[in-house]
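[job 4471] stage=fold_predict status=RUNNING
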Amino acid sequence: MKILLVFDFDNTIIDDNSDTWIVQCAPDKKLPIELQESYQKGFWTEFMGRVFKYLGDEGVREDEMRRAMMSMPFSPGIVELFNFIRKNKETFDCIIISDSNSVFIKWILEAANFHDMFDKVFTNPAAFDSRGHLTVENYHAHSCKRCPKNLCKNVVLVEFVDKQLQQGVNYTRIVYIGDGGNDVCPVTLLKKNDVAMPRKGYTLQKTLSRMSQNLEPMESSIVVWSSGVEIISYLQLLIKE
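[job 4471] inference complete, writing structure tokens
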């Protein structure tokens, strides 16, 4: 019986947001005001499509973007956590569900040699077009009212777990490691045996804290983390059970 580890990417695996980090490739390391102001709530992927077009039009090429991504720091203790998981891979399946994009995640994980640790990465598909511009599409369409229109992480998680079950893989528990507002939906729908691990001081932890003060019911346990080393300690306890 395996434990499923679900990771967010930005501000969880890496210690910043890959979409805002890429702006350092822009002239003067900033976007024009009209482009900044074109963002509409819930339509981040469309906004990033315009950012990538702007960067391409300004002559920013793939190798420059790759270098910027590869300079992103991992969150504290995450490298140690990944090495621990790798040593115990017979116990853990690992997936990423992220609102970043497939190109950025691939670059960062491959540069650190962690790409083979993940069984599946669910994110907005991206690719370079014939002009060398990065393009990005919505991961899927869904009807969840709580999530941005391009990605409901709960829909993705439920579909993955169901598919695994059909193939004879039944997880004893799900451990969800994240930080952001778009992690609230999947985390609040975890079951009694599962564990929500919000990063301390970030939106997910603040939201769960507010929910608990309002006595809004949640089935799963909540374990807050600041470093991947704390996650290792918790996973070691789970292994011993």
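[job 4471] summary: DSSP finds ten helices and eight strands in the chain.
[job 4471] exit 0
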